[in-house]
Design goal:
about 25% helix; binds zinc ion; alpha/beta; Metallo-beta-lactamase, Chain A; Metallo-B-lactamas; single chain; 7-stranded mixed sheet; about 300 residues
């Protein structure tokens, strides 16, 4: 049935005392699937994953599994898990931790000029940029720092204290990419360097997870005995980096180090049965990591409304 005939049919339906025309036609949804945010509790902390959107579909290999000798195994595994190696979307998942007194944003997305949806979804979740009291950057890649400044180079989270691992901050200021020039350099006086293990808010501490970049940092939040580990890019790809212990990404800068870091952190969160979130995992990117064979597997958390 084409649309014209459907509408005629709907009109007849209405004339016959059916539903109002608007309902028969359906209405456009007000937001994206899931609203672009996912709220859940970690003890006394309200956590929110905020989607910065998705990339258009693109090839997964070798970007998300770069070991030359594993390309065929990677491809087979992707197909087995219903992922198209030639056309898969990438997710970008900044996280907000609302501690009541403080609201900490972990990573800032790609920036509005690059299709970033973070600010739109932040507002849908009930927050404005000026509500953010702390911004933590896991590392200096463009999809994590791009949302720090607006189109005029002004800080987006103007009232926030900005924090970043000292090693990564020093590295990127000494080796500035175009994104670093645009988004990080203008704020460098405002960014406080953080060390491994430092508690940046009550119950929230930085955890060194070097390798993806020279000084990549993850965050661990513990509240009322509940745990959330925020990987950033230390987790890599949700399937390949977990299943293949030796896997690395094309954009992992120190490949040997990142393999060791992932082994250490996957073991830690699986033994602790900690809830985790990772920046490029499938939306809403909240779940657990469990041992499986020689490697690990991602188990999504039960979705709660
Ligand atoms: Zn990234």
């Amino acid at each position: 049935m084409d649309r014209r005939r459907f509408l005629t049919g709907a009109g007849l339906f209405l004339a016959a005392g059916g539903l109002p025309l608007g309902r028969a036609q359906g209405r456009a949804p007000k937001g994206v699937n899931g609203g672009g945010f996912y709220r859940f509790r970690v003890g006394g902390i309200q956590a929110v994953v905020l989607s910065d959107g998705q990339s258009p579909p693109g090839p997964l290999l070798p970007n998300w599994g770069a070991n030359p000798e594993l390309q065929e195994a990677f491809r087979r595994t992707l197909v087995e898990h219903f992922l198209d190696p030639e056309a898969t979307r990438n997710n970008f998942n900044p996280v907000l931790l609302d501690l009541g007194e403080a609201r900490l944003l972990v990573d800032t997305g790609r920036g509005a000029g690059s299709g970033g949806r973070l600010l739109a979804h932040l507002e849908l979740a009930g927050y404005l940029p000026e509500d953010i009291t702390h911004v933590f950057l896991t590392h200096g890649h463009p999809d994590h720092i791009g949302g720090l400044v607006d189109g005029e180079g002004r800080p987006v989270f103007a009232k926030a204290e900005h924090l970043m691992g000292r090693v990564d901050l020093e590295f990127w200021l000494q080796n500035p990419s175009p994104a670093v020039q645009r988004a990080l350099v203008p704020l460098k006086e405002r960014i406080r360097p953080v060390e491994d293990g430092e508690e940046i808010l009550p119950g929230v501490r930085a955890v060194a997870s070097f390798g993806h970049t020279p000084g990549h940092m993850s965050l661990e939040a513990i509240s009322e005995g509940k745990r959330l580990f925020i990987f950033g890019d230390a987790a890599g790809h949700y399937l390949l980096s977990l299943r293949f212990p030796q896997a690395y990404l094309a954009f992992d800068m120190d490949k040997a180090q990142v393999v060791r870091t992932r082994a250490r952190l996957f073991q830690k969160v699986s033994e602790e049965r900690s809830l985790i979130t990772a920046y490029h995992f499938p939306w809403p990117a909240v779940g657990y990591i469990r041992r499986e064979g020689e490697g690990y597997a991602f188990v999504p958390a039960f979705f709660e409304f």
